[in-house]
Specification:
The complex is a heterodimer of chains A (114) and B (113). Chain A has no helices and eleven strands. Chain A is mostly beta strands and 114 residues long. In chain A, the strands form two sheets. In chain A, strands 2, 4, 5, 6, 9, 10 and 11 form a seven-stranded mixed β-sheet that branches. In chain A, a hairpin with a 3-residue loop joins strand 4 and strand 5. Chain A is globular, with a radius of gyration of 13 Å. With 113 residues, chain B is mainly beta. In chain B, strands 2, 5, 6, 10, 11 and 12 form a six-stranded mixed β-sheet that branches. In chain B, strands 3-9-8-7 form a four-stranded antiparallel β-sheet, with no helix packed on it. Chain B has a two-stranded antiparallel ribbon with strand order 1-4. In chain B, strand 7 and strand 8 form a beta hairpin. At the A-B interface, strand 4, strand 5 and strand 9 of A face strand 6 of B.
Chain lengths: 114, 113
Amino acid sequence: DAGITQSPRHKVTETGTPVTLRCHQTENHRYMYWYRQDPGHGLRLIHYSYGVKDTDKGEVSDGYSVSRSKTEDFLLTLESATSSQTSVYFCAISESSSSYNEQFFGPGTRLTVL
Amino acid sequence: GNSVTQMEGPVTLSEEAFLTINCTYTATGYPSLFWYVQYPGEGLQLLLKATKADDKGSNKGFEATYRKETTSFHLEKGSVQVSDSAVYFCALERGSTLGRLYFGRGTQLTVWP
């Protein structure tokens, strides 16, 4: 199994509070991704990174920011959480952007915003 | 734009039944196509993939053929097992988009003994 961990695994927070989710990898892969999973929507890309300090937006980036100061860590921040951000968040990593390289997914973080 | 449409679930089958989960896509150019599986409480795992037209991906008894003429990548298995119960996601990747995946909504499969 690819070495990907996510923390926390579960979190309950209140509307308006900041929240940071962490993705940590031990594979030294260049590409990292944050997705959210919602019923009826599958997985949707929030942000991704193609190297240290190199990030870009995905299709549902509003209300989220990311940072990558080290190869192994990719942080997702909700500056002011809203109930619409209640979801399961998955981190993924990939050695390259080529489709010949598999994306490996972490175990997920279940976030509930009350 | 890029999108994936897969059949609505849930799908409920008896053990040893034949499985088909339909997937069609819209994409510019020549995408790569994937099926991912998510077992309860876990993250997604790659099940199979195909990177060009007429390629067949296969793994664990599952198969899917990349059909460019019908823009489809249907997942099939001849004889399902209880252990195949999971959510299955079809996805595509366009080579110019830094490896990002576009997912379908997922299809819940439940297999009864």
